[in-house]
Design a protein that fits this description.
Elements: H1 3-11, H2 18-24, H3 28-33, H4 43-64, H5 70-80, H6 83-92, H7 103-107, H8 114-132, H9 134-144, H10 146-150, H11 154-157, H12 161-173, E1 178-185, E2 192-199, E3 202-209, H13 212-228
Antiparallel strand pairs: 1-2, 2-3
Helix pairs in contact: 2-8, 4-5, 4-8, 4-9, 5-13, 6-8, 8-9, 12-13
């Protein structure tokens, strides 16, 4: 049994055009070393897969959390669709075993690199979408994200990022975040507020909302993402 057949069996998806699946697994480094290959690398599929994934998650958020606004849906989607999460899922389904890499990329641990794994998963999503349609792609994605989805509790859905940001900054820096109103625009019936949140006297996040509370929530969410990326000073 070929690798392509094994992966289809593992996914539970039989491709009408297996070449699509094969392309989803080809890293650009492989093509650089094998320019005569009949199949291109997976970067175009990765681009499409990113959009398909965003749509699947956005639609599920829309259906599962009818009480939250578009700002909270955007923030929850950002929490779910992170490259680290995609790479973890790729590891869980052993996608790295099937990637086709150039010798140099292979030698530097390319099968375990987050960009390669996350990009490969997005390309795989696009291949499934093109070959089998949105229902099959959505079924795979929701299955892969089931554990992460179950962690989206009421507090997260309500966008209580301010409390979590304060917990983080107190634990890491022994201080609380400071919110600063940058601008207030629009007529009384359609105001727009822009807020910055500062940590250690540095702007860590910005947010816009129809109320100061919503703008502060958006700013806190952005700050949490930046802190998660390793800000230390």
């Amino acid at each position: 049994m070929s690798d392509i057949e094994k992966l289809q069996e593992q996914l539970g998806v039989a491709f009408d055009n297996p070449l699509l699946l094969e392309q989803a697994l080809i890293h650009s480094s492989y093509i650089n070393e094998n320019p005569a290959s009949d199949i291109g690398h997976n970067e175009r599929l990765e681009f499409l897969g990113d959009a398909v994934l965003d749509f699947i998650v956005a639609e599920k958020l829309y259906r599962d959390f009818p009480g939250i606004d578009e700002g909270d849906m955007t923030r929850l989607r950002a929490l779910l669709v992170r490259r680290e999460t995609l790479a973890r899922i790729a590891v869980e389904i052993r996608l790295g075993d099937y990637l086709r890499l150039g010798k140099g990329e292979e030698a530097t641990g390319g099968r375990s690199k987050i960009p390669n794994l996350a990009g490969g998963l997005e390309a795989l999503i696009a291949a499934v979408y093109i070959d089998r349609g949105m229902p099959v792609a959505a079924s795979l994605v929701t299955g892969w994200f089931a554990e992460d989805w179950s962690k989206l509790n009421t507090r997260e859905a309500a966008g209580d990022y301010k409390s979590r940001l304060q917990e983080v900054t107190q634990a890491q820096f022994q201080e609380i975040p400071v919110y600063r109103l940058v601008s207030e625009t629009g007529p009384d019936h359609d105001k727009r507020f822009e807020v910055e949140v500062l940590v250690r006297a540095r702007v860590m996040g910005k947010g816009i909302g129809k109320s100061k509370k919503n703008a502060e929530t958006a700013a806190a969410s952005q700050a949490l993402q930046r802190l998660a990326g390793g800000f230390t000073s």
